[in-house]
Amino acid sequence: MKTVKVPEATVTRLSVYSRFLERLDQNGVVTVSSGEIAEGVGVSPAQVRKDLAYFGEFGTRGVGYNVKDLMRYTMNILGLDKKWPMVMVGAGKLGYALSTYRGFNDRGFTIVGVFDNDLTKIGKKIEHLDVHPIEKLPEIVKKHGVCIGIIAVPAPFAQEVAELMVANGLQAILNFAPVSLNLPENIILRNVDLSVRLEVLTFNLCYRSSTTF
Amino acid sequence: MKTVKVPEATVTRLSVYSRFLERLDQNGVVTVSSGEIAEGVGVSPAQVRKDLAYFGEFGTRGVGYNVKDLMRYTMNILGLDKKWPMVMVGAGKLGYALSTYRGFNDRGFTIVGVFDNDLTKIGKKIEHLDVHPIEKLPEIVKKHGVCIGIIAVPAPFAQEVAELMVANGLQAILNFAPVSLNLPENIILRNVDLSVRLEVLTFNLCYRSSTTF
DNA sequence: GCAGGTTTGTGAATTAATTAACGTGACTTT
DNA sequence: AAAGTCACGTTAATTAATTCACAAACCTGC
Lengths: 213, 213
Prior knowledge:
By secondary structure, the first copy, chain A, is an alpha/beta fold. Chain A has nine helices and ten strands.
């Protein structure tokens, strides 16, 4: 166990590999090579092997990887062998869409509480879940042992929501509000910034002929 | 005009700076330093200056940057001085949420067509927009001169939707389906993979004490 | 109009990430 | 059972990105 930091990009790719392997497995594929994985997800074969090498030796030389095994290994590395109950704050359109997003369930994530402070939303149902007033967050977090929170509120409220989450012991936050949150060092925070992603497209559209300056 | 490639991370940060500057401007702030921007968005001051340096000299030594000017510069660099009509394919919950997402409009993006092949969705309204059958995509794309497409369909359909977009001349695609799309080199493609983002959180939750291996 | 305090812009140094290259082990074939 | 092939794991080389550090430029006050 060397003391080497795993690049974030590696973790991201691992998640992609994992899902690709899941699909191979469903199609009955038994063995796969780094080259085939690379081809399937759009990276280089060396990259695939390097990424996996951070965590162990999972393949057989001259053969490749057992799909089912590698799938399990990658999922374990990502912590997907555990249960991850989550809370969602914000029951607007985005919060609603995310709360019912199949992709989360498919990977074992479960939203156990949706919260809002808008009286017209509280009490409504999002599938089988009630929309609770924000005051109920502590109770639900405690009850389910939640450590992941998702923020889907308008930008001006995101910071206070994040602080409330931290105050209630959440350790990881996925923030969809388009602002930079200021939180303690030990909180794991990642942003999903939809406009930013689009603006990367427009930038490249403008400079596609010459991505150079 | 040196021939230096601009890192993707720089473009991403530029978008974040731009929005931060917008907020400063709304609050009446006239001048800002690289340090203040850095503080506000969570990067280092040197990073801010370096990022801007790819595109020119926008500041005044000993003083800082004029907020309004730098905001305009950054938006121009990102292509936000132009109109970007977009089409959305997929009128499920996510497609619906994204089609009505305020954050896009706030940055000048407009969705001019929403498409689906589900008969129960076609003809319905998403705010002022009709949901069209997918066959109508070519017409709308041509009519509005669209070059950006958003994919919000289930994974199994994403590849064919992407190919349809490419066939109709779209040049940039933002893909929300959790699959790796295979498209021609010249198409600008970015993925927003919601599960992947969550799995980066769970990975870090598992190895927070020792992010090292 | 000069001194002192600021903050930019930038080349150099550092750190990080990716790609290349190759030795090693495993399976296959004859 | 030996030779050939294949694909992994790993070290080295390369490329990329970030941070450092400092000269140059600007403003303020006296």
